[in-house]
Specification:
mainly beta; seven-stranded mixed sheet; 11 strands
Length: about 120
Amino acid sequence: HVQLVESGGGSVQPGGSLTLSCAATGPFYPTYCMGWFRQAPGKEREGVAVFVSDGSTYYADSVKGRFTASKDNAKNTLSLQMNILKPEDTAMYYCAADCSVDSGSGIPTEYRYRGQGTQVTVS
C-alpha cells in the first residue's frame, strides 16, 4: 500500500515561511490525486493544495497567493511552500494520496491514504 511521510513542520511567527515535504512509497501512480490537507483542533479537515487527477491544482481560497505546491513524479515527492503564514494556518498538515473531489464544488474532500502529519504552529 502507499506510504506517505511528511517533514518540515514547526513553529514560526506570523509572516514567516515554512516548507513541508512528503515522500511517497508503494504502488503509486503519477495520476493520483495527491496533495496537502490540514486540520486544526475543533475544525473540519480541509484540502489546502491538491493536485487533482485532471492535471489542475486546487488551492483553498484562504491560502491562494501564499502557498505553492509542487511535486516530482520521478522522485515521488511533494512539497508545500508556505509564505506569509498567519495564526489561522496553525494546524496538523497531512500529505494525502488517492483523494476524491466533490463533483459540484471541485473541492477535494476525501483521501484513501495519508501520512502521520506534521504540526505547523504560527504564533
